[in-house]
């Protein structure tokens, strides 16, 4: 999103979270937004909690997956436009793309809303839907959402107007460990789960007595056929490579 917005608009600075320890070595790792901002030669601000002083020099802030609660005084200090990858009010919350795929939704989309105190409940400035393809995974949906969101922001940023959200809200609760576990006796649910968790999290199962992450699969004659798997402690590989390794 940052790369797309920077090509189209004058970005004053980038607000992102502080560097955090990550990985086995627990070394400090920069957020992806900071890495992209530095590549684009944009100023980066990383307060633990932003204050009015941090936003005093801008009128509009585009928020994408920031992950920090914005206090009321900051909401009043600028126009915060939140990019959300769902057709609000469906799938408010932390995992809208994954929940849409898990539920077998036929379409999703992008909503640009005004950020308010209540979770993803702000009025809508722009919204557009697209179809979820039979082979789309979460990665494909996020990529399409980012492209669409940049186009919607082109329409919204010059002079945003808002309408209230319509319909009954549903909530995309944060993913838990249990969401990763596949029931191979229910191949349709298992395939939806694999698509929802690929390529960033991964669904888990036991194949031939070995615990694996399944990244891609398909249905054949009502059965789940793995295509790409990753045994614990190993690289990703095709299912045929995995089977040859067993032999």
Q: Would you tell me the overall average pLDDT? A: 95
Question: CATH H-level name of the largest domain... which superfamily?
Answer: Formyl transferase, N-terminal domain
Helical coverage, percent range? 25-40%
Return the CATH class of the largest domain: Alpha Beta
Widest beta sheet: strand line-up: 5-6-8-9
Question: Got a strand count?
Answer: 14
Determine the oligomeric state from the structure: single chain
* Radius of gyration, in angstroms, nearest whole number: 20 Å
Poorly predicted runs of 5 or more residues: none
CATH architecture of the largest domain: 3-Layer(aba) Sandwich
Count the DSSP helices. 8
Distance between the termini: 45 Å
CATH fold group of the largest domain: Rossmann fold
Which structural category do the helix and sheet elements fall into? alpha/beta
N to C succession of SSEs: HEEEHEHEHEEHEEHEHEEEEH
- The biggest beta sheet, please? 4 strands, mixed
| Domain count | 2
* Overall geometry: globular
- Content of β-strand: 25-35%
């Amino acid at each position: 999103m940052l790369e797309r917005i920077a090509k189209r608009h004058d970005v004053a600075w980038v607000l992102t979270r502080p560097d955090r320890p990550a990985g086995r070595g627990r070394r400090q790792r920069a957020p992806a937004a900071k890495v992209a901002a530095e590549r684009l030669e944009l100023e980066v601000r990383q307060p633990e909690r932003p204050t009015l002083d941090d936003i005093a020099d801008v009128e509009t802030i585009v928020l994408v997956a920031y992950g920090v609660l914005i206090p009321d005084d900051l909401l009043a200090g600028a126009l915060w436009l939140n990019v959300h990858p769902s057709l609000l009010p469906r799938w408010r919350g932390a995992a809208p793309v994954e929940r849409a795929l898990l539920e077998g939704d036929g379409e999703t989309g992008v909503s640009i809303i005004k950020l308010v105190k209540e979770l993803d409940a702000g009025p809508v400035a722009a919204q557009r839907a697209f179809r979820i393809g039979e082979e789309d995974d979460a990665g494909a949906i996020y990529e399409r959402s980012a492209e669409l969101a940049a186009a919607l922001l082109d329409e919204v940023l010059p002079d945003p107007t808002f309408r209230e959200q319509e319909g009954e809200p549903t909530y995309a609760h944060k993913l838990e460990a249990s969401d990763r576990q596949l029931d191979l006796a229910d191949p349709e649910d298992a395939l939806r789960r694999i698509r929802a968790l690929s390529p960033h999290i991964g669904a888990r199962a036991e194949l031939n007595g070995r615990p694996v992450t399944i990244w891609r699969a398909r249905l054949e004659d009502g059965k789940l056929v793995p295509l790409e798997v990753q045994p614990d402690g190993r690289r990703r590989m095709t299912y045929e490579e995995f089977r040859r390794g067993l032999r």
